[in-house]
């Protein structure tokens, strides 16, 4: 299983990165590559195309419905619906530009109507020709080829989920490894459950200690992300969702003070093999 960071800017696209979007891929026993996209925030559809033809996505998981996590779903719909015949597609249907059916999209309750409103559909119109939208059921696993997704409710001002993705190790496919993605959250029991014995904890760190101490229930700081990784025994911490207005390196400096394991700051194009 491998993670490619498509966009890692927090809250809005920055000069160096699109908003949140993460490509998770794994090969099954037959050698077919399965592609799961976690979030498709503002600006992320462009760089996604460097790594994956969007037609080839097998599923999308939306952590929540803030624009920095789902705004580019509108552009994706246009791409899926209107691309010229013969354009794109590397999997089955290659050369025809055809998907095998609508793309599975997992998100909070209300995702379908929110996407339709964002796209400007009239009442009664829907996107079901291209997108099959399913509501997360906390704790109920979803299978995407060799990947198992488990959504976990977390603490944010709107319904929000982190996702544990378990799949075959890149180096030893007989071993199962876990990537835990926090989405947007403050410290909470859901975060603790996500981080527990994760091989990689991909954790947001939008807030800064000292600057944002009065605002709780929305985001992690680098320190709170590091504490979750330490408490859960996570093998590696990747900090992400850092807004462009934060002091560079603050999230890392906070996390390294409380988490003894390896820490990276996410950057666009970064690949993490699990
Ligand atoms: Zn966000
Ligand atoms: Zn949010």
From TrEMBL:
SUPFAM superfamilies: Metallo-hydrolase/oxidoreductase. Gene3D superfamilies: Ribonuclease Z/Hydroxyacylglutathione hydrolase-like (3.60.15.10). It comes from the Bacteria. Residues 41-241 form the Metallo-beta-lactamase domain. One of its GO terms (molecular function) is 3'-tRNA processing endoribonuclease activity. InterPro entries: Metallo-B-lactamas, RibonucZ/Hydroxyglut_hydro. PANTHER family: METALLO-HYDROLASE YHFI-RELATED, ZINC PHOSPHODIESTERASE ELAC PROTEIN 1. This is MBL fold metallo-hydrolase.
